[in-house]
Amino acid sequence: MIKADAGRVTLEGMDLGYTSGAMIAKRLAVLRQDNHPSARLTVRDLVFFGRYPHSHGRPTTEDADHVARALVYLGLEVLADRFLDELSGGQRQRAFIAMVLAQDTDYILLGEPLNNLDIRHAVRIMQLIGDAARDLGKTIMVVLHDINMAAAYCDRIVVMKDGSIIRHGATDDIMTAELLSDVYDTPVSVHFLEGRLVAIY
To answer: Which keywords has UniProt assigned to this entry (predicted)?
Structure first.
């Protein structure tokens, strides 16, 4: 984790600036924006990496069970023995999300999980993330640039500009023309379409 410029970053009282990575990894799973494994891995191999904070490279039957459940949850059973470089972008992203689910932490941070995905795959990924939050009781934080995707799938939104938090709150509080026009430095209008707020720019 990058150290804070000022103050402290805590997770349930645990100061992330002074806590070992191994300890943090048992509470917080992080999927970075760019993921390029140096080795040629199968989907199953990748998902097993999610168990490393618990198994330290010596997976147990319990670890295998967590991996199997994550594969099933993301619909990857038939792809489990395929190599990552043989998969589509959407399939590969599902494999990485399965890895962080297998880590079995209360909190998950996903950095730009929709990068390079077409609309169909992006929507499916957001649906799966939402399902995981509800079904598995996870708190999932997603970094997105697409405000409409955030408004459609997230319970709360934290708006940042130039590295600072501008506002945070429920979707209805964030999806205003005034706020979004200021954040994006471009005129934005907000409309209620088919049951949801949509930004037009």
So the answer is: ATP-binding, Cell membrane, Hydrolase, Ion transport, Membrane, Nucleotide-binding, Plasmid, Transport
